[in-house]
Amino acid sequence: MGGTSNKNRALDEIVRPYVGRTGGLICALRAIQAEIGFLPPETEAAAAAAFNLTRAEVKGVISFYADFVRKPKGETVIRLCAAEACQAQGARSLEMEVCRRLAIEPGATSASGDLTLERVYCLGLCSAGPSAIIDGALMGKATPEKIVKAFETGRGARK
Amino acid sequence: MNDAPTIFIPLDSVALALGAEEVAAAFLVADFDIVRTGSRGMHWLEPLVEIEVGGARIGFGPVDAGDTASLREVLLSGNFAAHPKYVGAIDELDWMKNQQRLIFARCGIVDPLSLDDYEEAGGLTALKKAANTPAGSLCEEVLASGLRGRGGAGFPAGVKWKTVAEAQADAKYIVCNADEGDSGTFADRMIMEGDPFLLIEGMAIAGLAVGATRGFIYLRSEYPLAERILGEAVRIAYNEGVLGADVCGSGKSFDLELFIGAGAYICGEETSLLNSLEGKRGEVRAKPPLPALEGLHGKPTLVHNVLTFCAVPDIVRAGGKAYASLGVGKSCGTMAFQLSGDVKFPGLFEAPFGLTLRDLVERIGGGARSGKGIRAIQIGGPLGAYLPPSQFDTIIDYEALLAIGAGVGHGGIVVFNEDVDLLEQARYAFEFCAEESCGKCTPCRIGAVRGVEVIDRIGRGEDHAENMQTLTDLCELMVDGSLCAMGGMTPIPVQSALNNFPEDFAFPSIRRTFAAGAEKTP
Ligand SMILES: Cc1cc2nc3c(=O)[nH]c(=O)nc-3n(C[C@H](O)[C@H](O)[C@H](O)COP(=O)(O)O)c2cc1C
Ligand code: SF4
Ligand code: FES
User: Fold this and answer.
1) B341 CB near ligand 1 (under 6 Å)
2) For B410, phi and psi rounded to 5 degrees?
3) Would the CB of B482 count as within 6 Å of ligand 2?
4) Looking at residue B514, what is its pLDDT?
5) CATH, domain range B327-417
6) Residue spans per domain, chain B
7) Which residues of A touch B438 (CB under 8 A)?
8) Which residue in A has a C-alpha nearest to residue B427's C-alpha?
9) Residues A142 and A112 in one domain
10) How many other C-beta atoms can be found within 10 angstroms of the C-beta atom of residue B58?
11) Would the CB atoms of B432 and A88 count as touching at under 8 Å?
12) Is residue B66 helix, strand or coil?
C-alpha cells in the first residue's frame, strides 16, 4: 500500500477544507487539480470517503466537467477559442495552421509531453478575436506566429 | 504641477490580451501614478491609456509597447494632440456620448477595488436606502421598473422577487449566474472586473428584499481575473460592513460566497447551475418546481444573471418608474449590447432598448472591419438566430425579435462577413450542442449528434432532398422533446440559417469550404 497511501493522505489533506461546504466536492476536485495538474486515480477513493459518497458518484461528477482531466497535460497548454465570434474572425483557419505548425491535433498532448492543445468555447475576449490562452496568459488577435512564438518562449524559459 | 500625473490603464481581460500589462510596465518605471481600471468598452482602442486634465480624461489608443516612450513624453509635456494615438476627450467621443450608461457608469473610470471610489461615484446609496426600506416596497420597485432577466429568457425580475419573498422557508438563497457561456458576450466579465461592488450591492439589496441571508456567485472558470477581483471585492465588502452580520446598518445579515465552475456551458442553465453549485453533475432539473420555490438545497432561490442584479441599485436609487421610462414597449431600461466578430468598432455599448440592429452593426459598429460585406449576424449567443441584412431594421426589443424568430439573449451580436458559410455555422450549432448537452434527454443528446451527420450529408449532396427533410424533422423533434433550451433552442441557429440562407444548403453550393472528412474544423 505504501506509495498509494501516502498519496491518499496528501489527497485527504487537499480535500478536507471543502467538506461541508456548498459545492464542496467540485471545489475539492478543483483544488486537487490545481495542485497536481490532473486528477490521479486515487481521487475517487479520497473524495468519496471525505464527502460520504460512492466512488461512482465522484466519478460521475469528474466526467461531467471539461475542466477535470485524468492525465497530466503537456508542459505548455494552448487553449484556442473555437466559438462563433472567434470563427467570424478566422478561428477555424487559425486552428488548422497552429495544428499544422506544431504538429498536433485539438484535444491532444504531444508524444514528448511538451504541449497540449485544447479547444475552448469563448473566453469572453470575443471583441478581440481570435482568442487564445497560453499557460494562463490571455492572447487577443491571435495569429499562428504569435502562438508559436509564445510556445517557444515558454519552452525556452523552462530549459 | 509637482505631483506625478495620474494615468489610467485598464486591467480588463481584453486589454490584457492586447498587451496592457506591457504598457503598464513601461509606465511603472516612469514618473506616473498609475490607476488600473476596468475597460471603457471601446475594444478597438485597447489598450487605452488615459490621463486626467482639468476634470476630463484624455485618451490614447490602441497603445502598444512601442508607443510608450513617445507617449511618456507627450503626457509630461501636455502636448497631447501631437501623439499619433491621441483620441481626444473620452466623454466627447460619439461612442460614449451616444450611450446611456446605468450599469457601466463607472466601468473604466474607477479603480474597481476602491470602495471609496465606488461610493464617491454614487455607489452604496441604494443599499443604504434599501436598508431602511420595507422589503415589500423593494420588490414593488423592481416590479415597477419592468426589469427583465438579462440572462436570456427575459422573465420579469419583479415577479421572481415576489415569488421568493412570499415563499415560506427557513432559508432562502440569492444566486448570481456568472457563467456567461454565450459566445459573443463579455458584459458580465467586464462589470465583474471593472465595477465588482455594483454586483455585490445588487445582490445584497436582493437579499434584503426577499429575505435571503446567503448568496453565491457562480463564476465560470474561464474568468480567472474576474475571480481574483471579485474575491478581493467581497473581502473588502466584508471588512467595510457592506456584507456580513449587519449590512450597512440594516441589522440584517447577508453572506456572499464565490463559487468557481468547472467548464460546462450547460451550467449556465439555472437548474443545472444549482446542481453544480451543490457539487453534483450539472444535469438539468425538470421544472416545476421553479428554483424560486425549490432551488439551492431545495430552498427558495432567486437566480439572476450578473447584469440583472447590477441593474437593481439604479432602480432602487432612482425609482422603478424612472427605469421603466427607458426603452420601448415591454423592454424597459438599458441593455448592454456586445459587438464582436468582423466589425470595425467592437465592444460594449449600453443603451435603452429601441435601437435597430442596423444602428448597432453599421452606425455604432462601423460595419465590417475587413471591408468585406456583412452577410449575417448572430444575435443572442450559440442558441441565437442568424439574421441577414434584410432584417437589420428590426428594433432590438424582446417582442420585436421574437416576431422574427430571434431573441435578445444576453445581448451579444456577432458579425459575419460574406465569407461565412451558414451550413457550416448550422453544423457547428449541432456540434456545440452535442459537446455541451447534459445528456439527460434523448432528443438533445442523440439529436445533436444526428444533426451533425445530417448536415454533413447535405453538404456532400447525399440524398439531398431526403436529408433536408430529415433536418427539418430533427429540429422539430428537438424543439418539442427537449427538457431545456439547450436542446430546445439549438434548432434556432440551424433553422434561421436554413430559412435565411437557403443557398448555403443547396448542392452543389459555391460556398462549401468543408466536405467529407473535415470534421476536425471547429
Ligand atoms: C443552455 C443554457 C445556458 C444558459 N446560460 C446562461 C448564462 O451563461 N448566464 C445566465 O445568466 N443565464 C444563462 N441561461 C439562463 C438561465 O437559465 C436563467 O434563465 C437565468 O440565469 C435567470 O436569470 P435572469 O432572470 O437574470 O435572466 C442559460 C440557459 C440555458 C438554457
Ligand atoms: S435538452 Fe439537452 S441540455 Fe437540456 S436537459 Fe435535455 S439533454 Fe440536458
Ligand atoms: S467567442 Fe472566442 S472569446 Fe468569445
Assistant:
1) no
2) -100, 10
3) yes
4) 47
5) 3.10.20.600
6) 6-97, 115-324, 327-417, 422-517
7) 64
8) A84
9) yes
10) 22
11) no
12) helix
The region, left, alpha or beta by phi > 0 then psi within -120 to 50, assigned to residue B18 is alpha
Q: How many Å apart are CA B365 and CA B224, to the nearest integer? A: 28
Q: Is B386 on the interface with A (CB under 8 A)?
A: no
**Cβ-defined contact of B280 to A25 (cutoff 8 Å):** yes
CATH number (1.10.274.10, 3.40.30.10, 3.20.70.20, 3.90.550.10) of B6-97 reads 3.40.30.10
Residue B77: count of CB within 10 angstroms of its CB? 10
Phi, psi of B468 (to 5 degrees): -65, -40
Question: Cα-flanking dihedrals φ and ψ of residue B346, to 5°?
Answer: -80, 155
With respect to residue A15, please indicate whether it lies within any of the assigned structural domains. Answer: yes
Shared-domain flag, residues A110 and A152: yes
Question: What is the CATH classification number for the domain harbouring A126?
Answer: 3.40.30.10
Question: How many domains does one find in chain A?
Answer: 2
Check whether residue A92 and residue A150 sit in a common domain. yes
Decide if A70 is inside a domain: no
Q: Find the Cα–Cα–Cα–Cα dihedral B146, B285, B190, B361, rounded to 10°.
A: -70
CATH 1.20.1440.230 is the classification of domain B422-517: yes
ipTM computed for the complex: 0.95
Nearest CA in chain A to B440: A64
Residue B8 region by backbone torsions, left for phi larger than 0, else alpha for psi between -120 and 50, else beta: beta
What sign does the dihedral B115-B117-B118-B119 (CA atoms) show?
positive
Q: Kindly identify the ligand whose nearest atom is closest to the C-alpha of B487.
A: 2
Q: A2 CA to chain B: closest CA distance, Å?
A: 31
Query: Is there an atom of ligand 2 within 6 Å of B486 CB?
Result: yes
Fold of B115-324: Rossmann fold (3.40.50)
Answer whether A138 sits within 8 Å of B282, measured CB to CB: no
- Which residue, among B180, B396, B426, B479, has the nearest Cα to B307 in the 3D structure? B180
Tell me, yes or no, if B265 comes closer than 8 A to chain A by beta carbon.
Answer: yes
Closest ligand to C-alpha of residue B274 is 1
pLDDT digits (tens, 9 = 90+) for A96-150: 999 999 999 999 999 999 999 999 999 999 999 999 999 999 999 999 999 999 9
Q: Which residues of chain B have a CB within 8 Å of the CB of A141?
A: 18
Select from B293, B327, B41, B3 the least CA-distant residue to B172: B293
pLDDT given at position B516: 39
Residue B98 near chain A (CB below 8 Å): no
Whether A127 and B186 have beta carbons less than 8 Å apart is answered as: yes
Report residue B28 as a C-alpha cell: 511603472
Last residue of a domain, one of A16, A33, A64: A64
Q: How many CB atoms lie within 10 A of CB B241?
A: 12
**Within this chain, do residues A80 and A152 fall inside the same structural domain, yes or no?**
yes
DSSP B343-383: -SS-EEEEEETT-BHHIIIIIIT-S-TTSSPEEEEEESGGG
Q: Which domain holds residue A16?
A: 2-64
pLDDT, one tens digit per residue, over B261-312 is 999 999 999 999 999 999 999 999 999 999 999 999 999 999 999 999 999 9
Whose atoms come closest to the Cα of A88: which ligand? 3
Report DSSP state, residue B284: P
B149 vs B156: CA distance, rounded Å: 6
Interface residue B185 vs chain A (CB under 8 A) = yes
B:151-180 residues touching chain A, CB 8 A cutoff: 180
Please identify every stretch of chain B with a pLDDT value under 70, giving residue numbers as ranges: 1-2, 512-522
